[in-house]
Amino acid sequence: AFTPSTTREEFCARVGLDAARPILLYLCSSPFITPYEVGFVRTWMAAIRSASTPEPLRSAGLLVRPHPQNAEQWRDVDLSEFGNVAIFPRAGANPVDRDARAEYFDSMHHAVAVVGVNTSAQIESGIVGRPVCAVQVEEFAGTQEGTLHFQHLKNVNGGLLHVAPTLDVHLGQLAAILADPQGYAARSRAFIEAFVRPHRSEEHTSELQ
After folding, report:
1. Residue 192: which H helix or E strand, with range?
2. Coil, strand, or helix at residue 205?
3. Angle formed by the axes of helices 98-109 and 121-128, to 10°?
4. CA distances in angstroms from 161 to 42, 56, 149, 155, 190, listed in the order given
5. Which of 146, 129, 128, 148 is nearest to 137 (CA)?
6. What is the rounded distance in angstroms from the CA atom of residue 15 to the CA atom of residue 122?
7. Taking residues 91-100, what's their average pLDDT?
8. Is the peptide bond before 165 cis (omega within 30 degrees of 0)?
9. Considering just the CA atoms, what is the radius of gyration of the chain in Å?
10. Helix, strand, or coil here: 87?
11. Are 188 and 156 a contacting pair, CB within 8 Å?
12. pLDDT range class, residue 209, cuts 50, 70, 90
C-alpha cells in the first residue's frame, strides 16, 4: 500500500500552510500548455478568497506546485496577499528520486481536491483518489479543448475532470467537493478504472514512490 511520508501537520509545517484548514492543490502545466500561468493563478486565488460560497472554501490552504519545466516564472512571485498560500517546491521538481516522489505524493495525498489547466499530473491525482477540477480559460482554450489529452480527461467513463466554464461555477464545484470529498472521489476511481488498466494503476503509484 502506498502511504505518505509525512503527517498532515508535518507537511503543512514544511510548506507553510495552516494544518487546520483544508488544502486545495493547484498543479501547474507545461510551457506548451500554459506558457505563463501566474496571472491565472492570481485570478483563481482572488476568486476563492472573495467567494460567496460557505466556508471552508474562502480560507482553504492554496498550494501551488510549479511544473518542473515551467518553474522559472514562479521564482520571485509573492502570493502572500492571499493568505494561507504556498508555492512548493518553488523551483519545481521532477519526481524522479525518492524524496521528490514522496513530496509529490504527499502534496496530492494531503489535498482535498486538485486543480489544473491540463496536465498529466491530473491523472496521477486521480490515481491517488482526489477529485480533479479544471476551469476553462479562454487564453488556454487551444491547449485545453484543442488537445486529445483534455478530451480524454473530460469524457472517458464519465470523465476525471470536473470542468467549469467559469470561475463562479468552479467555486461551486470546489465548495461541493469540500462538503463531500469522499463522494466526489468515486468519480476519480471510475475514470482510473477505465483510463488506466488496473496493473498500470499500480505501476503509476509505485512510480510516485
Report:
1. helix 181-195
2. helix
3. 70
4. 21, 22, 12, 8, 12
5. 146
6. 21
7. 85
8. no
9. 16
10. strand
11. no
12. very low
pTM of the model: 0.86
- Residue 90 carries which side chain, given as an amino acid letter? R
Nine-digit cell at 35? Answer: 506558457
Query: How remote is the C-alpha of 92 from its chain's centroid?
Result: 14
Q: What is the pLDDT of residues 157-207, one digit of tens each?
A: 566 788 899 999 999 999 999 999 888 877 777 777 776 654 444 444 434
Q: Assign residue 159 a region: left if phi > 0, alpha if psi is -120 to 50, beta otherwise? A: left
Query: Is residue 132 a contact partner of residue 117, using CB atoms and an 8 Å limit?
Result: no
Set of cell numbers at residue 34: 500554459
- Residue 53: how many other CB atoms lie within 10 Å: 17
Three-state secondary-structure class, residue 145: coil
CA–CA gap between residue 194 and residue 198 (Å, rounded):
9
Reported residue count of the chain is 209
Cβ neighbours of residue 21 closer than 8 Å, sequence gap 6 or more: 56, 59, 60, 61, 84
Query: Maximum distance among all alpha carbons in the chain?
Result: 44
% of the chain with per-residue pLDDT over 90: 56
